[in-house]
Design a protein that fits this description.
The complex is a heterodimer of chains A (about 325) and B (about 325). Chain A has about 325 residues and is mostly helical. Chain A is built from 13 helices and four strands. The longest helix of chain A is centred in the first third of the chain and has 32 residues. At the A-B interface, helix 6, helix 11 and helix 13 of A face helix 4, helix 10 and helix 12 of B.
Chain lengths: ~325, ~325
């Protein structure tokens, strides 16, 4: 935190936290003054808008990472994974532990996805696999059960008090005429790299080909010799690892709590639906649109209302394009 | 078409609750009264899922709308309980109609996701709009001289509210049982089983689904209003996603395909939770494990067990 603050104050003064992802910890002073200004003296300056747009794009990368797993599990296993957000919270809590108990943030970047991936194997074997192919509600009930179990376990181990993780990289860099925290950009780059790597993995490896085959027709894939069960397991493990990693990367930018996963479920699901169920590119594009919209709204509104407005912005899409705006390109 | 065993079982459960209330004391009467209000929520989920074909993960939002409408209405109309409950029903119907209009255009799974989005969004909105909802602290029911049909009535977690809630629920279940033998209900079932075929046969499938979903909203709203009268306090927790998931658990334990299963599911889960609270604070963990167990080993719930047994016997 100290490093972040040292770098940041070279350009703008840090001000008090407000609630909400990525806008909760530190805001440049001009943002607060812009938001507290009312009526005729309200002036929207470029740095304010640029900061929020960049913030929105950065947030979109993490949202894309979370939605990726949600989308993959729905697209392949046909399950609405209600516990996905809870795995994201697990990642953030692991980051809090490694920083506050072991003194290393980067350890969490490796440990959290690994732990989530390993833990997801028995979860798949004993909870998810029996629900595949059954009525959608069966999977929904099972994953809701997982959500309760994970949340309550987090409450028992981590507690109910909110926690903070200092950014591991301090300073700020100039971008679009503003200074933006370096860590957020690095974390967003990591998220982009993972999304790109997953896309390459899907396009250029045998397992990626299997995954695409199973997504199109599990029966045909099975008849062609594709190990469908193994593909399902890989997707569950990767989804859990991605969600946990997103939690780790977001941890230094928000307030950590055992229930933080619930608040990302809504945006993540809307991104999946608007992007088109089963469409990776669509989900990322929808995440960017939502992130930018949320950023722009947060110039004028408190974070929660900004988030709600960004979601409301997508409601016409849900009505007129219920199968997603990018469905045709999936 | 009429499920005689189902209605007798559900009414029997309510009758037993009312009979034991004087014996178990005021605390347990209050617990049971709250359980009765949640039975409306469980039944509304079953209606939405099994008959409107909308797997709604936002029924607690509708329930919460009814509860808040009851609190707001009390400030406006005083202690007239009929008007308060009517406000809850109207709020539930309105929210359900808005949700339903959006959800009907979506696929089955898309509608489920849509309701998750509604549940999370309204929960966030409710938390932010503290001036109207009281946020996590909630809003107390305004102090009024409550009266029902001209007679004074003591609201709160007491035997009187348990009897009132049970009577309203029993009337609702009997009305549903009578309605389930009509020609209109056969059309609802036809639409639920194959909306496309029903549409081709000349029925307004979307209209029927929306109407059933609105009715499920009325039921949830009525339950919410009763909950507000019983608890004398409504917090934003009642519209949370967790509450909606609990309603799914109640419906799933009782048997999601039968509205008569709701009362059994609520009683089984909530009484187990109340008893477990005496030994552990990890009740959510146990509820989670129960959800998983129900999904894996009893996906049709208690009512489903009865049906599968009867189908085995007929084979």
């Amino acid at each position: 935190m100290a490093g972040f603050a040292r770098g940041w104050v070279t350009s703008v003064t840090l001000v008090k936290p407000r609630a909400g992802l990525l806008t909760s910890r530190y805001e440049p002073e001009h943002l607060q003054s812009a938001m507290t200004a009312t009526g005729e003296d309200f002036l929207l300056d470029w740095p304010t808008l640029a900061f929020q747009i960049v913030n929105g794009v950065v947030w979109a990368m993490f949202l894309g990472l979370i939605a990726l797993g949600l989308n993959a599990i729905f697209g392949l296993l046909g399950l609405l994974n209600m516990a996905h957000g809870a795995v994201y919270a697990v990642g953030a809590v692991i980051a809090w532990y490694t920083v506050n108990r072991l003194g290393s943030f980067w350890l969490a970047v490796f440990a959290a996805p690994l732990a989530a991936g390993i833990a997801s194997i028995p979860v798949y074997r004993f909870v998810l696999r029996p629900t595949i192919g059954q009525d959608m509600m069966v999977g929904l009930v099972a994953t809701s059960g997982l959500l309760f179990v994970i949340n309550d376990t987090l409450l028992a181990l981590y507690g109910g008090s909110p926690g903070l993780v200092p950014p591991p990289i301090g300073g700020a860099v100039g971008i679009l005429g503003i200074y933006y925290p370096t860590y957020r950009l690095v974390a967003a780059m990591m998220a982009i790299a993972i999304l790109a790597a997953f896309w390459l993995f899907l396009r250029s490896t045998a397992i990626g080909l299997w995954i695409r085959c199973v997504a199109q027709s599990p029966t045909l894939a099975k008849a062609s010799g594709v190990p469908v069960e193994r593909v399902y397991l890989i997707i569950v493990v990767l989804s859990a690892a991605f969600a946990a990693l997103a939690g780790v990367l977001v941890a230094p930018m928000t307030t950590i709590s055992y229930q933080m996963g619930l608040s990302v479920l809504g945006p993540a699901f809307i991104v999946v639906v608007v992007g088109g169920l089963g469409s990776l590119g669509g989900a990322v594009a929808a995440a960017v649109i939502m992130g930018v919209a949320r950023g722009v709204f947060s110039v004028f509104l408190p974070p929660t209302y900004a988030e709600v407005c960004a979601i409301a912005l997508f409601l016409p899409f849900l009505y007129f394009r219920p199968n997603g705006i990018f469905r045709g390109r999936a | 078409m009429r499920d005689r065993v189902g209605i007798v079982t559900a009414l029997g459960v309510l009758a037993v609750l009312c009979a034991i209330a004087p014996l178990v004391g005021e605390f347990w009467s209050g617990v049971l009264a709250r359980c009765v209000s949640w039975m409306f929520l469980a039944i509304s989920f079953s209606l939405a899922y099994s008959y409107a074909n909308i797997p709604s993960v936002a029924q607690a939002t509708v329930f919460g709308a009814g509860a808040y409408a009851a609190v707001w209405a009390t400030s406006l109309v005083g202690g007239n309980m009929i008007l308060i409950m009517t406000a809850g029903v109207a709020a539930g119907a309105l929210i359900a109609l808005v949700f339903g209009a959006l959800l009907l255009k979506m696929s089955h799974s898309g509608a489920a996701i849509g309701t998750i989005i509604f549940a999370v969004t309204f929960s966030m909105l409710g938390n932010a709009a503290v001036a109207y909802t009281g946020g996590t602290d909630g809003l107390p029911m305004p102090a009024q001289a409550f009266h029902l049909l001209g007679m004074p009535f003591a609201v709160g977690p007491n035997i009187g509210m348990l009897l009132l809630g049970s009577a309203v629920l029993a009337a609702l279940l009997v009305a549903f049982w009578l309605f389930s033998g009509t020609r209109t209900w056969r059309v609802v079932r036809a639409v639920q089983q194959n909306a496309m075929r029903a549409q081709v046969l000349g029925y307004n499938a979307a209209g029927y689904r929306l109407a059933v979903f609105a009715v499920s909203g009325c039921v949830a709203g009525l339950g919410g209003a009763l909950y507000a009268l019983i608890s004398r306090h409504v917090a934003i927790e009642v519209v949370s996603l967790s509450m909606s998931l609990k309603s799914i658990l109640w419906a799933a334990v009782g048997g999601v395909t039968s509205i008569y299963g709701g009362p059994i599911g609520v009683l089984a889960v909530q009484l187990a939770s109340e008893l477990l609270l005496r030994w552990t604070v990890r009740v959510d963990l146990i509820i989670g494990l129960m959800l998983i167990a129900v999904a894996l080993w009893m996906p049709r719930g208690v009512m489903g067990l009865r049906r599968s047994r009867s189908s085995q016997q007929s084979q």
